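User: Here's a chain of 123 residues. Predict its fold as tokens.
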Amino acid sequence: MTSLTSCSSTPAAKGHTSLPFSDFKPSVHRLGVCRKVTECFLAECYQPDTSPGWLEATSRAIDRAGRASNTRCLDAILVPEDQVAFFLLEAATPEAARAALASAGVRVDRISRSERSSLHRSR
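Assistant: Prediction complete.
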């Protein structure tokens, strides 16, 4: 079984604990404090009918719907010719991402874990 090392809730004085991979919960050690890490998910949605402003309004609705689960819309792309919209979400789990989309009224056809380049990111 693969083991990973998690950070302790206090600085390195307490050392690290080895956890079986199945029990591993992602976290980041920052200034002696652990916090849950979010992941990126790409949602693909068939969207046959959109009006001007739909993408912006839907992105905002996803952010509002995801507040309770710390899910947010990082970016969105609409491809009208193909009748598809893509939403890049930051969420703890794919279920949290899917729930925020559903609460915002977006029907998801596919959701996948993804990576985001730091190129041109202002954060």
